[in-house]
Amino acid sequence: MGKSEPEEPEIPKQVIARASGAEIVPDVSRARGFLGKLRYLLFIPVLLFSGAVIGLYIQPPGLQKFFEITGLKPGGGTSAPIALPAEIEIPQDVIDTLQITDVIGLARLIPRGDISPVAAPSGAGDARIDEILVGVGETLQKGEVVAFLDNLAQLESAVKIAQANVGIREANLLQTRQSVANSLNEALAVLEQAEAVAEVAKSDRLRTDELFGRGVTTQAAQDAAISADTQADRAVEKARATLSRYDNADIEDQPDVIVAARNLDAAIAEFDRALQDLDRARVVTPISGVVLAVHARPGERPPSGGIMDIGDTSQMMAEVEIYQDRIALVKPGQPVEIVSNAVGQTLNGTVERIGLMVESQDFVSSDTAANTDARVIEVLVRLDQKSSLVAARYTNLEAVARVDTRVKK
């Protein structure tokens, strides 16, 4: 086969025209196509800006998933992010009036001092609830008995036994005092009698010695007088030894009385302990307040979390969790709005105290995909009187709190 002739390259018309010296006519159709494409490119920045705004404020599911995976936070590059945490479901009326200086957080309505459980007394053992004396909504004073346990009868019996033992010890002390007093008086009387006898015996001996010297009496009479005098002296010594048991004339200082008094003290201590043990059958309130809930019934063992809950609802508070990157804006005394659809109105209060620890978030929304490991600081808000009266019916209600950080205190 023969070789084919090589094809000549196609020369642009502009080059041929320029070589021949002919006038070059521009290709208007190609220029118009380029300008048309450039016009479409101008819409790209507009679309990017619109997408950014939609992503910041609406955050569709796909974008939320992106932030969750990457750990990025909308608005995180500014000092005051305008995007709100995805975990917080903001009521529409709050969104409509939201300011860039506002700080939002999830809140929980609590009584002053929070909820106090009323637990069974320490040492109740296996005792069960015998009777509950109060119900939900009743107002109680601190130390008031709210329930009895079924060990009450046993402990009351122990109190009666201890009380009877005290009576026995008291009687024994009185008997000992009387006995010691009688013994002391008897010893004194014996000593006085012995001394009197000894004095007579001494006189008889002296007179007998004188008579024996004059030869009037016999030797036997003199020996008898000497013996009587000696025996009288020994009787005095014995009486004094007996009296020496009583070092002091004060009855209370006598050893037997002291022992009896100490036995009485021990019996009184046992009685006091029995009275204290009686408290193990009585359930009392640790604070003054209103019964919020009852968690047990007669016949059941006291629950570990308490038989009932009580709270001082005369002053309601709000426990607000503020994200750590916004806490620097929050100051004591700043006004706070508490909003919840369940209440149906806005509650007002002021920041009372700011926590000192960064902790994990406790309040989360019902969204299962919400972040539950956010770092927050607890802020305590004191509700005003009007709002406190309304909130008293909603202990533990979760709400949304908005702190107006424009107010500086």
Keywords:
single chain, 409 residues, alpha+beta, Elongation Factor Tu (Ef-tu), domain 3, six-stranded antiparallel β-barrel, three-stranded antiparallel beta sheet, 9 helices, 11 strands, 42% helix, rod-shaped
Topology as a string of helices (H) and strands (E): HHHHHEEEEHHHEEEEEEHE
| Strands, total number | 11
Q: Helicity, in percent?
A: 40-55%
Structural domain tally = 3
The separation of the N and C termini measures 102 Å
Mean pLDDT: 79
Number of helical stretches of at least 4 residues: 9
Could you give the order of strands across the largest sheet?
1-7-10-9-8-11
Cα-based radius of gyration, to the nearest Å: 52 Å
Write a brief caption for the model:
The protein is α+β, with helices and mostly antiparallel strands and 409 residues long. 42% of the residues lie in helices and 22% in strands.
